[in-house]
Fold:
Amino acid sequence: MREIKFKAWDKTNKKWCDCSPAVGWVLNTDTHEIRIQFYGCTDGNIDLIQYTGLKDKNGKEIYEGDIVKGYLMINDDDYSFTDVISYKAPSFICDNSADFGLDMYELEVIGNIYENPELLEATND
Structure:
């Protein structure tokens, strides 16, 4: 079973907030809703980022919004790309790359869209 984890990006203060289960997750058993309390976020202007359940080639957890460098070999040809991880129901994908599924790539997290947007600008030139 995939581990459920989240991070929260405070868009106002441009920083990560603590939203670990130990900090404040509340499960309403009547409605089956989970309320997550965010410590360190001031006004609720946040992006909630979910863990994919996967790790990159270096063992780093991969989250939505992470910018990854991907490597793939097809018929003795090497392909590489830089892309963003996003959620498109029912799975996590690389936004602009060929649709082979994340488990088919060798991925390396090189940043994220919040702290390192320049990594994407460099690949779009």
Notes: The CA atoms of residues 38 and 79 lie 40 Å apart.
